[in-house]
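Continuing the series of single-chain predictions for the mutant panel. This is the parent chain; the variants come on the following pages.
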Amino acid sequence: MGTLNIIIRKRALNTIRKVTEWYESEVNNTAAQHFVEDIYDTISTLSHSPLIGILDEQYSTEKMKYYSFLLHPKYRIVYRFTKKTLYIVAIRATMMKHN
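Parent structure:
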């Protein structure tokens, strides 16, 4: 399998933007930059080796298989792929919610 074309869905882009803004305001610009670099490095790796992720049962259906890959201690990339294209569907937080 060669390098897949990459399409990042609007939902994923919005999450990347929001998390980056949080890092800029709550931590610093360097941390925000590292977060964005980690995302795009991971997407690049997935475009070469999409099967390294795990099957994501939350998103998958009988007809469409979705995968996820831990890109950061607190976030996962959710994606699917075809023979030619890698679709980045969402960036999902992995933190537990406390009531």
